[in-house]
Amino acid sequence: MEDLKCPLCGKWNSATVQECTHCGWMFNFSGQTSVEKNPATENIPKYRIGTITKRTRIRWAIFSAILLLFFLSFHIVPSRLMIFPKENLSFSNTFITQKDINELIERYNNAFFERFSIQQEPLFKKLMEKGVIYDKSKKTD
Questions:
Q1: How does pLDDT run across 83-137, given as a tens digit for each residue?
Q2: Over the Cα atoms of the chain, what is R_g?
Q3: Residue 75 belongs to what H/E stretch?
Q4: pTM
Q5: C-alpha–C-alpha distance, residues 69 and 131, integer Å
Q6: Distances (CA, A) of 26 to 30, 40, 64
Q7: Residue ranges of the domains in the chain?
Q8: Which of 25, 36, 39, 128 pairs as cysteine with 20 (C-beta 3.0–4.6 A)?
Q9: Half-sphere exposure of 125 (CA within 13 A, CB side)
């Protein structure tokens, strides 16, 4: 088989390829060039096919920044399907699991002198405020 000349860019290609290796023009199986351009690349300039554009990178950067700010500013409790704001922007205690809640309760119950300081912790305050943890001695039945 002889090489094929691309009607779009005029460069020669091997007869075994299905599209021009230079511009992406689609050849049909009989070896003749197809009448139509590849619809996926018809309106895209040659230099942009298969490359990530600057606009796409900017969009990903903006999306990543928004996602980062979301995770910095909220506590997420998946076991209770709760999301509530943090006092400070940080990654600490972003995702609060049931294990974290149990450890906090156990630390509070085992403490004697540190109970007041534990009650002043922002996470403890928020969990008490949201009703995730509560003081049984103050609860009325």
A1: 888 888 888 888 999 999 999 999 999 998 888 999 998 889 889 888 888 877 7
A2: 31
A3: strand 74-77
A4: 0.52
A5: 26
A6: 12, 11, 37
A7: 74-129
A8: 25
A9: 8
List, in sequence order, every residue forming a beta bridge with 84; answer none if it has no partner: 75
**Cα-flanking dihedrals φ and ψ of residue 93, to 5°?**
55, 40
Q: Which amino acid type is present at position 25?
A: W
Q: Could you give the C-alpha distances from 25 to 40, 48, 50, in angstroms and in order?
A: 11, 15, 14
Do residues 80 and 132 touch, judged by C-beta distance below 8 A? Answer: yes
- For 40-49, write each residue's pLDDT tens digit: 555 555 555 4
Within 10 A of 31 (CB to CB), how many other CB atoms are there?
A: 11
Query: Residue 59: enclosing H or E segment and its boundaries?
Result: helix 54-73
Is 1 in contact with 31 (CB distance < 8 Å)?
yes
- CA-to-CA distance for 128 and 122, rounded, in angstroms? 10
Q: Are 55 and 63 in contact (CB under 8 A)?
A: no
Question: Residue 123: what residue type?
Answer: L
- Token output for 14: 């091997």
